[in-house]
Each structure stands twice: as C-alpha cells, then as structure tokens.
Amino acid sequence: MNTVLRILAWLLAMTLVVLPVVAVLNGWVGTERWPLAKLRVTGDFKRVSPEQLRAVVLPYVRSGFFAVQLQQVQDAIERLPWVERAQVSKRWPDVLEVMVIEHQPFARWGADRMLSEQGRLFPVPGGLKDLKLPQLGGPDSKVTEVIALYKVSGALFASTGLDVSWLEMDARGSWSLGLSNGLQILVGRDDTRERLQRFARVLPQLLDPQHPVVRADLRYTNGFTVVRGPASVAFSVESRLSEAMFASASQRVTSCVQFGRQPFIAFQSVFPICSFGT
C-alpha cells in the first residue's frame, strides 16, 4: 500500500512539473488565451510618466501572462534616465504591476552626470533647466567624502547667508569651492575642515559690498590671503576649477590674516595667486 501511495505521489509531482511545459508547447497559455491587458503603475512620479513606462513595457508583454519575463521588464524600466529602481509583478488574470522609485537629485556631478540623494551617480537626463543644484565633482570613488565636505561647508557658511554653489576635489585630493556670492576658495589637501572653520569665523568681518572678496587661499599653516575685486565682479557656477584655481594676475591682495604666534609673510601688492604652492 505504501508503495502504491509513493508511486501516486511521484506521478502527481511529475504531472505538476510537466504540465506547464506541455501547456506552453501546445499554446494553452499563449498570448491569445491569457493576454496581459492592464498595466498598473505606482510611485511618486515627477520625472517619469506612465506613458513612458507603457512604451517600455509593451514589447515584453506580448508573450502573455504566463510567458512574460519579469526580470527583463524590470531591467528595461531601470534603464530609463530618472529611474533609480523598479519592481515588477503580475496579478491574475491579466494585470502587470510596476512600482517605480525615481532618483531624487542632490547635485550635479562633473560635466555630464547627476548625484542622487542616495549617493548614486546617473546620467544627466533632459529638461533640467528648472533644477537649481550645486555643482560637485571629484573621483567617483570619493563621492561620500565630497558629499560630507559639502554638507560641512554649507553649515559653516550658513550664518553668513551664503550657500556653497560648487565644490570639487581634484585628482591630487586638493579641495576648492565657491559660494553663492561668487567667492572662490582654494582649500588645499590638508586640515580641510579646520581651514574652513577658521575662514568661516572671519568671513563676516571681510564682507564689504563695495570691495567684495572674490578669492581666498587657505593653503597656509598660519593664515590665509584674500583677493578683493570691484563690486561688479560676479562669477557663475560654470567658472570651473581652471578659473577657480585663481589664475588672475590683475587682482590685488588687500588682506592677509594671521593665526597663531608664527610670523606670517606680508605678500607684495600684485601677483598671480596661483604661484604659491601648497
């Protein structure tokens, strides 16, 4: 009796395995018999439209409810520029369900990418004129460090009413940043946060609308230098590091700030500020 039961159980198991294969081969579960007729989309949509999703999904659902490859559908959706991740499932008898999470842009990264709030880099989609974002940059492996210093810098300069417009780390690990009033700051590689803290404490005393500080060099052990320009001087975020590295030789150094007891060199009147090393 036990042998008979085991044989029956084995036959039932084999039937359950073989039946779907036979059904597909015979067209029992083909598109005509069990088509996917509905697309149900959920998500907080700002940049991705249901129409876009429908166009992406359509080529994959023609195989019907049983034969549709959900992973292929998900991969296709996640290739859309603004999609961070997607989840695809099906519900009997004819519904394909798609859940989409969009990238939440945090900053621009380099020339052709963006940085999401989750710290992921993704290609720059179209239609970004309405987005006012800081410009960040650096080696891809240093994304976390760049974000951290951007947040620290923003907090340090918040009391002045100025925002950090751009911040970059170069290949040597040297930092530069710009504020929303056009002030460009060369920080260097060492003691980055300490240098910024010292400068942020002094900056309110240096602000003068008639003679604004346009550049500052913090790469000194015992102080920093600033360069003032005319009130009409303005810099956009697009003036990248090649300009932000302070290449102008026509500006005059009007302030040298000293910290500590060590003597601080009094620089002469006119010079290319980029001539001083780290």
From TrEMBL:
<dbReference type="GO" id="GO:0090529">
    <property type="term" value="P:cell septum assembly"/>
</dbReference>
<keyword id="KW-0812">Transmembrane</keyword>
<protein>
    <recommendedName>
        <fullName>Cell division protein FtsQ</fullName>
    </recommendedName>
</protein>
<dbReference type="InterPro" id="IPR005548">
    <property type="entry name" value="Cell_div_FtsQ/DivIB_C"/>
</dbReference>
<keyword id="KW-0472">Membrane</keyword>
<dbReference type="GO" id="GO:0043093">
    <property type="term" value="P:FtsZ-dependent cytokinesis"/>
</dbReference>
<comment type="similarity">
    <text>Belongs to the FtsQ/DivIB family. FtsQ subfamily.</text>
</comment>
<dbReference type="Pfam" id="PF03799">
    <property type="entry name" value="FtsQ_DivIB_C"/>
</dbReference>
<comment type="subunit">
    <text>Part of a complex composed of FtsB, FtsL and FtsQ.</text>
</comment>
<dbReference type="Pfam" id="PF08478">
    <property type="entry name" value="POTRA_1"/>
</dbReference>
<keyword id="KW-0131">Cell cycle</keyword>
<feature type="domain" description="POTRA">
    <location>
        <begin position="34"/>
        <end position="103"/>
    </location>
</feature>
<dbReference type="InterPro" id="IPR045335">
    <property type="entry name" value="FtsQ_C_sf"/>
</dbReference>
<comment type="function">
    <text>Essential cell division protein. May link together the upstream cell division proteins, which are predominantly cytoplasmic, with the downstream cell division proteins, which are predominantly periplasmic. May control correct divisome assembly.</text>
</comment>
<dbReference type="InterPro" id="IPR013685">
    <property type="entry name" value="POTRA_FtsQ_type"/>
</dbReference>
<dbReference type="InterPro" id="IPR034746">
    <property type="entry name" value="POTRA"/>
</dbReference>
<dbReference type="InterPro" id="IPR026579">
    <property type="entry name" value="FtsQ"/>
</dbReference>
<keyword id="KW-1003">Cell membrane</keyword>
<dbReference type="GO" id="GO:0005886">
    <property type="term" value="C:plasma membrane"/>
</dbReference>
<keyword id="KW-0132">Cell division</keyword>
<keyword id="KW-1133">Transmembrane helix</keyword>
<keyword id="KW-0997">Cell inner membrane</keyword>
<dbReference type="GO" id="GO:0032153">
    <property type="term" value="C:cell division site"/>
</dbReference>
